[in-house]
C-alpha cells in the first residue's frame, strides 16, 4: 500500500473515531468497552460523557459497581439487586420521548447517552436476555456505552426450572443447554456495532521492544501467573496514555479496525486522540523510506550500507561468462563459453555427449 493510501486510511479512521466519541449521526448505538485489571475503561467512558455534555445530550448512568454519582451525569440509576425487566423499564423511562410529543420532536429526538459501568452481572445471570434488553432501552437518538471486564470469570449460566418437583431434571437440562450457548464475550461482540479494547500504552511499548529483540513479550495481571495481590493501573491514563483498539461494524457488514492512543491534553480539557502509527513511540516501526526505518530502529555492530565509491566499483565489475547471456543467434542463447586451460584434459567422448 502506498504511503498516500496509508495516510488516507489513518485520517479516515481518526475521523470515524472522533465521530463515535461525539455521538454524531447515531453512527454506533451499541458500544462495548472491553477492559482488564491492568487498564480500566473509565478514562474512555469519562471522555464519552464529557463530549456528550458538550453536545447537550442527556446522560443516564447505570451503576452496578459505582457508588458516587458522576458530576456530569444527569440521571444516576442504582441497578444492583433489580430484575432485568424492572431495570429496563427504569432506563427506558428516562430516554423515551415524552408522551404527547409533536411530530417535529419525534423526527429530531433528543440525544441521550446511557453508560453502564459493568455488564458482568447481567452477562453472568441472564446472557440470553441481553438482545431484548438492549432493544428495549435504545430508542432513536440514544447511544449505549457499556463496559465488560474480560478478566472477571463468568459464572455458570443457570436457566429457570419448571417447579420444585422437577428441580433435579431442570438443573440437568439447564447444564446441557448452557453447553450450546455462546459465552458472554462472544455474544456481546456479535451484538455490538462498535467494540473498543482498552490497554495500557506503557505495556504496548514494552511488548513492542520485546518483539524487536526477538524476546518473549512480558505479561501482566492474571497472565503473569504470580501469587499475591493483583494491583491494576486504577482509573488514570498513566504517564503516557492508553491504547484503544477500535472495531466498528458498518451497516454493509464491513468492519473498520484501527488502533489509537489517547493522551491527556496539556490544557486539561479531556483526552487527545492520535493514530497509534503516528505516535512517537511507534512511528519508527512504520518508518518512511526503505532502509531509513531500519537504520533508526535496528542496532547492529556492522554497517550494511554502501559508500558511493563501493557502489561505483560494484557496477564496474564484469560477471564471469557475461558474453553467454547475449543471444548469438540461431537459438544458441544461454550456451556456456569455456576456454580450456593448459592443465585441462580434453576428452573427445565427453565432448560428443
Automatic annotation (TrEMBL):
Q: Where does it reside?
A: Cytoplasm; Nucleus
One Pfam family matching this protein: Elong_Iki1
Alphabetical list of CDD domains matching this protein? Elp5
The pathway entry for this protein reads as: tRNA modification; 5-methoxycarbonylmethyl-2-thiouridine-tRNA biosynthesis
Q: Give the primary localization class.
A: cytoplasm
Query: What are the protein's UniProt keywords?
Result: Cytoplasm, Nucleus, tRNA processing
A GO molecular function for this record? tRNA binding
* Entries under InterPro entries matching the protein: Elp5, P-loop_NTPase
Q: Name one GO cellular component term.
A: cytosol
Biological process GO annotation list? tRNA wobble uridine modification
**Which protein family is it in?**
Belongs to the ELP5 family.
* PANTHER family referenced in this protein's UniProt entry, alphabetically: ELONGATOR COMPLEX PROTEIN 5 (PTHR15641)
Q: What is this protein called?
A: Elongator complex protein 5
Which source organism does the UniProt entry give? Answer: Thermothielavioides terrestris (strain ATCC 38088 / NRRL 8126)
